[in-house]
């Protein structure tokens, strides 16, 4: 018998993917250059040159077994050490090889992390706006995800409501900063207060509460700033990272878990992840990708394109009367729609070949997401379509 849970999901596919497929089909009709597709967060800048050179060098110099053989269950030991050294150097936290577990991207990292610190029936909290795939990531593990409503004033976590939602059954809190879909970076003040609440609740409940920090956009921060690193503020933190965005390598599916060395049982959590892999079959990421990212561990693709695109879109959205929080990073922006029904708003935008994503599934009904990881030239051309859309549909506002 077919599993009914997954069968039912066929009628509730990802809105982002559906809109991306629509944009592709529309592009086949009128030329994709004429479709202003802000649907999918697919990095548009080239990967760093050193990664390509590293892959070529590996293929030219390593034996087939070294290159194509299975890596150890926890990941290539040398690569894990290089990751640990990089984090130690950058953030001043004494990571060692034993604290690192290599994964197939941040999705694989979260899949392991939630099983690492919860059991079926436990509760996990996250903050709106949030990445919609968190729901299957968490709920399919047997834990239950609950969402703290958004503070739309600045999209910092609503910590007053969060504290009121804490119960002894909450075993983990999942955060994402820089945030998809808002582009907001959680401030140092936010992280300090969050950590204070978690420490207080650990004492009150008499058990550990882990912070699972989803960090694929860690390096994509604008205006010369850096994103505060959550593990600096709270010992029981598990960082989930992907090189997909920083190195523009989403198709290579490579990332890692980094366990804070001060976390409970820190020295064995990566080993436990290896056991979790046995149950979910989500193990041994590409050996080539592991070896190649190790060669460019501290490099970042040219993110100036994203910052330029943010500035262009933010200025125009404000000029057109949108309410919008200026992103601190990522390549997303989350304006308020010009009507209460953001789904209707985005459907109207399609008539102008503007592909916008309603944010209802992100926990922010009435808002929409634009993924501006596209060529700046196309962003600039899209402004005329955006103006026509607003003037035609909403000029009487």
Note down, in words, how this protein is organized.
By secondary structure, the protein is of the alpha/beta class. It folds into 2 domains: 4-47 and 302-394, Aspartate Aminotransferase, domain 1 (Alpha-Beta Complex), CATH 3.90.1150.10; 49-295, Aspartate Aminotransferase, domain 2, CATH 3.40.640. The protein is built from 14 helices and 12 strands. The chain has helices at residues 4-9, 15-30, 49-61, 64-68, 77-91, 105-117, 134-139, 159-165, 188-205, 266-280, 287-295, 304-319, 342-350, 376-394; strands at 36-37, 100-103, 123-127, 144-148, 170-176, 210-214, 237-242, 255-259, 332-333, 354-355, 357-358, 368-371. Strands 2-8-7-6-5-3-4 form a 7-stranded mixed sheet, with helices on both faces. Strands 9-12-11 form a 3-stranded antiparallel sheet. Strands 1-10 form a two-stranded parallel ribbon.
């Amino acid at each position: 018998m077919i599993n009914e849970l997954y069968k039912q999901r066929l009628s509730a596919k990802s809105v982002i993917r559906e809109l991306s497929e629509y944009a592709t089909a529309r592009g086949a009709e009128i030329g994709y250059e004429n479709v202003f597709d802000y649907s999918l967060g697919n990095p548009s800048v080239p990967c760093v040159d050193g990664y390509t050179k590293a892959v070529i060098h590996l293929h030219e110099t390593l034996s087939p077994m070294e290159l194509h053989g299975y890596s150890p269950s926890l990941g290539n030991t040398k690569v894990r050490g290089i990751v640990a050294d990089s984090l130690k150097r950058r953030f001043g936290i004494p990571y060692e090889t034993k604290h690192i577990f290599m994964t197939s991207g941040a999705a694989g990292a979260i899949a392991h992390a939630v099983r690492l610190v919860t059991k079926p029936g436990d509760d996990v909290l996250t903050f709106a706006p949030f990445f919609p795939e968190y729901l299957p990531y968490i709920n399919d593990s047997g834990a239950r995800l609950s969402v703290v409503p958004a503070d739309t004033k600045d999209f910092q976590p609503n910590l007053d409501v969060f504290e009121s939602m804490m119960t002894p059954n909450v075993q983990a809190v999942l955060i994402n900063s820089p945030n998809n879909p808002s582009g907001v970076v959680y401030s140092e003040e936010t992280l300090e207060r969050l950590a204070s609440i978690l420490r207080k609740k650990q004492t009150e409940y008499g058990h550990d509460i882990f912070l699972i920090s989803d960090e694929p956009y860690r390096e994509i921060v604008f205006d010369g700033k850096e994103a505060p690193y959550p593990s600096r503020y709270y010992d029981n933190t598990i960082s989930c990272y992907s090189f997909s965005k920083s190195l523009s390598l989403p198709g290579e599916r490579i990332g890692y878990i980094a366990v804070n060395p001060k976390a409970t049982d820190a020295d064995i959590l990566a080993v436990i992840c290896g056991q979790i892999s046995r149950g979910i079959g989500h193990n041994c990421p590409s050996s080539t990708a592991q070896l190649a990212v190790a060669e460019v561990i501290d490099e970042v693709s040219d993110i100036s394109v994203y910052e330029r695109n943010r500035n262009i879109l933010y200025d125009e959205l404000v000029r057109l009367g949108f309410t919008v929080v200026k992103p601190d990073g990522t390549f997303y922006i989350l304006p308020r729609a010009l009507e209460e029904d953001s789904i209707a708003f985005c459907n109207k935008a399609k008539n102008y070949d503007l592909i916008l994503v309603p944010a209802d599934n992100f926990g922010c009904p009435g808002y929409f997401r634009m993924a501006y990881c596209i060529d700046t030239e196309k962003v600039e051309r899209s402004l005329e379509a955006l103006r026509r859309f607003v003037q035609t549909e909403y000029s009487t506002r």
